[in-house]
C-alpha cells in the first residue's frame, strides 16, 4: 500500500538539541537520541501488522516449528515501533522460548535479556509518570487551600476526598505494572534456565541471581517455585566448581605467557610461588631460591 508507514522508514531516531553550553564548548551531548513517534494512525497500522506476524509465529511455535517461529517473531519486531517497549518485550521473550526449545542457550539468554531491558525501561517511564502526577496533585491541593472559600461553599454538601476519586491514568498504570510483572516472570525464568544450561562461572552466577529474584515473586506457579528452590540448592556448588575451573585455566594461561617472557632470561614461572592472602583473597608472587 503506497504511503505505508514503516518502523524503519524515516530515520529511526531524531537527535535532541545539545545544551547551549555544550554547543558552545564543542562537546557532544550525553543524552540518548529520542525515538521517532508515529501518528496514532500509523502506529495502529504498524502494530496491527506486527500482531499479525506474532499470531503466525505463535501458531508455528505450537506446531514445533521453532526456527520458522523465530523468523516470524523477528518480522514482528521489525515493524513494531521501537518505542513500544511492552510489545517488544513480549516478542523478545517469545523468541527466547523458541531458542530454549532449540537448546540454543546463548541466543535464548540474549533474547530474554533484551525483553527484560525493555521492561526495565517501561517501568522507569511509569515511575516518572507517577512522580509527575503526584507533584501535579500536590500543587493542585496547595492551590485549593489558598483559595478563599465563599459563604455558599460552606453550606454545600461534603466534597468527595481527592484520594477517594479513581484516577483513570493511575488505573492504567497499575494495569500496565501487572502486565509487566507477568512478562518479567516469563522472561526471567527463561533467562535463568538459559544461563544455567549454558554454564560457566558468569552464566551460573547470573542464573543464581535470576532464581533469587524469581523466588521473591508472588505470581510464580507452584511447579516453577519448586524448580526455583531446586536450582537455588544446586547452583552454589556449580558456581564454585566453575569458578575454580576457570581460575585454574586462567592461571595456566598466565603461566604459559610468563614462561614465554622469562625464557630469554633463563627463568621460568616454576621459580616463582603464588601466595594467596587469606584475608583479602589477593595473590603475591615470591621468588623461590634454590
TrEMBL record:
Which InterPro entries does this one have? TPR-like_helical_dom_sf, TPR_domain_protein, TPR_rpt
Q: Which SUPFAM superfamilies match?
A: TPR-like
Keywords associated with the record: Coiled coil, TPR repeat
Task: Identify the stretches annotated as TPR repeats.
Answer: 50-83
Which residues does the annotated region (Disordered) include?
1-55, 155-175
Coiled coil spans: 112-154
Q: Quote the PANTHER family the UniProt record gives.
A: TETRATRICOPEPTIDE REPEAT PROTEIN 1
Descriptive protein name: Tetratricopeptide repeat protein 1
Q: Which species is the source of this protein?
A: Phomopsis amygdali
Amino acid at each position: 500500500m503506497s504511503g505505508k508507514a514503516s518502523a524503519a522508514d524515516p530515520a529511526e531516531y531524531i537527535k535532541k538539541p545539545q545544551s547551549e553550553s555544550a554547543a558552545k564548548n564543542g562537546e557532544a551531548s550525553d543524552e540518548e537520541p529520542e525515538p521517532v513517534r508515529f501518528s496514532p494512525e500509523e502506529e495502529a497500522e504498524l502494530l496491527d501488522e506486527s500482531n499479525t506476524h506474532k499470531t503466525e509465529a505463535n501458531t508455528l511455535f505450537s506446531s514445533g516449528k521453532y526456527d520458522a517461529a523465530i523468523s516470524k517473531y523477528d518480522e514482528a519486531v521489525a515493524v513494531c515501533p521501537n518505542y513500544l517497549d511492552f510489545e517488544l518485550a513480549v516478542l523478545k521473550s517469545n523468541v527466547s522460548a523458541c531458542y530454549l526449545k532449540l537448546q540454543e542457550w546463548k541466543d535464548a539468554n540474549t533474547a530474554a535479556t533484551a525483553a527484560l531491558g525493555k521492561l526495565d525501561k517501561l517501568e522507569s517511564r511509569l515511575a516518572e509518570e507517577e512522580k509527575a502526577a503526584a507533584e501535579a496533585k500536590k500543587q493542585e491541593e496547595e492551590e485549593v487551600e489558598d483559595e478563599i472559600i465563599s459563604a455558599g461553599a460552606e453550606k454545600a454538601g461534603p466534597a468527595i476526598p481527592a484520594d477517594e476519586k479513581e484516577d483513570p491514568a493511575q488505573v492504567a498504570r497499575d494495569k500496565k505494572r501487572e502486565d509487566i510483572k507477568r512478562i518479567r516472570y516469563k522472561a526471567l525464568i527463561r533467562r535463568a534456565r538459559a544461563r544455567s544450561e549454558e554454564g560457566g562461572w558468569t552464566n551460573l552466577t547470573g542464573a543464581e541471581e535470576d532464581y533469587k529474584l524469581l523466588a521473591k515473586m508472588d505470581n510464580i506457579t507452584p511447579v516453577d517455585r519448586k524448580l526455583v528452590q531446586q536450582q537455588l540448592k544446586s547452583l552454589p556448588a556449580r558456581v564454585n566448581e566453575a569458578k575454580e575451573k576457570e581460575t585454574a585455566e586462567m592461571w595456566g594461561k598466565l603461566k604459559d605467557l610468563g614462561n614465554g617472557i622469562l625464557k630469554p632470561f633463563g627463568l621460568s614461572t616454576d621459580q616463582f610461588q603464588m601466595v594467596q592472602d587469606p584475608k583479602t583473597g589477593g595473590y603475591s608472587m615470591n621468588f623461590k631460591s634454590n
